[in-house]
Amino acid sequence: MTLAPGKKKEKLDRLAELSAVRDDEQGVSLWREAMRRLRRNPSAIVGAAILVLFVLVAVVGPFFVPYDPVDQSGIREGVIKPGSIPGSSAEHWLGYDHQGRDEFSRLIVGARQTLIVGIVSTLIGLTIGVLIGGVAGAAAGLGGRWGRLVDSVLMRIVDMLLSLPSLLLAVSVAALLGPSLVTVMIAVGVVSVPIFARLLRGSMIAQANRDYVLAASSLGVRKSKIAISHIVPNSLAPVIVQATLTLATAIIEVAALSFLGLGNPDSTQPEWGLMLADAQIYLDVRPGLAIYPAVGIIVTALGFTLLGEAMREALDPKLRR
User: Does residue 33 lie within any of the structural domains?
Assistant: First the structure.
């Protein structure tokens, strides 16, 4: 579900305020208190378990798959016929796909491709967004009149990007660059740039009014050093939380672009979104070809969402119980 532009900005600004929350009266750090709450949160435990399983499957699984994911053994053996695709068996746990390849092996190898694309696209958005948000936040908090002008210009650009539906923006970028795996990563990364930028900027502005910043300024420390060495490190908490949530949406958007034919044009390379797209014309013959990758996408996105939301609640004092 896509949030309305106003609601999206309000949510980001609220999350940015978390970095300005003071430690509790007993002197326990915000992150230590958050970790204690996460260990007691069932949603965080379930989300973390799903993600550990997904990462293990993606990293280790491809070394132990029973068959080559590109080997068309089903066609070679003559078991794939028009209107008939064999299902599960003792040798092929999830059966064959429409080109006679082992579905289980492709699903396991496709998990690695999905993980890599999701992480790289999130890192692209995080890197560019942190750069823009860091400049805007430092300019607004420490730059005086001209700094506020720079911040205003950057934020209007960010607001324009936030006003566009994320999937529409990703499709536009992917269509402009042409279908490829790199295009998918860039397109999904561009979608998350304004989110990270606005979030870090709001967090840095909240930190700019803290006592340690005023103390450093009174001691004559350069503003650039205050921003880089002090404000930015203390402003990253909500950004890290958002990165976890962005991974969930990135995996879904990558699958959506592949489903629309804007992903990797090489169909021999397994990827869950592409597998889902290839299976749509065989739903009446083997619906499992669409169900297996769809379940993988849903469960993985659920894991990132559960963990991310639990982290947000653990860091937000208004949501603590």
Answer: no
Range of 305's domain? Answer: 40-319
Side chain identity at residue 107, one-letter code: L
Distance CA 12, CA 281 (A): 40
Q: What are residue 81's DSSP bridge partners?
A: 84
The encoded tokens of residue 205 equal 């502005």
Q: Please tell me the pTM assigned to this model.
A: 0.81
Taking the C-alpha atoms of residue 262 and residue 206, their distance in angstroms, rounded to an integer, is 40
Question: How far apart (Å, rounded) are the C-alpha atoms in residues 172 and 177?
Answer: 9
Structure tokens, 297: 């996408």
DSSP at 149: H
Domain count, the chain: 1
How many residues would you count in the chain? 321
Measured CA to CA in angstroms, residue 297 lies from 59, 114, 303 at distances of 16, 9, 10
Helix H, strand E, coil C: the string for 181-250 is HHHHHHHHHHHHHHHHHHHHHHHHHHHCCCHHHHHHHHCCCCHHHHHHHHHCHHHCHHHHHHHHHHHHHH
Q: Strand, helix or coil at 96?
A: strand
Only one residue has tokens 């579900």, namely 1
pLDDT at 172 over 80: yes
Give how far Cα 225 sits from Cα of 138, 228, 229, 237, Å: 10, 5, 6, 20
Which band of pLDDT confidence, cut at 50, 70 and 90, is reported for residue 264? confident
Retrieve residue 20's tokens: 């300005």
Say if 50 falls within a structural domain: yes
Whether 110 maps to a domain, the answer reads yes
Residue 158, domain member (yes or no): yes
The sign one gets for the Cα dihedral 195, 196, 201, 207 is positive
Both structure tokens of 318? 């208004």
Where residue 301 sits, what CATH number does that domain have?
Answer: 1.10.3720.10
- Cα angle 19, 130, 186 (rounded to 5 degrees) comes to 135
> Helix, strand, coil shares of the chain as percentages rounded to 5?
75, 0, 25
pLDDT confidence bin for 108, thresholds 50/70/90 = very high
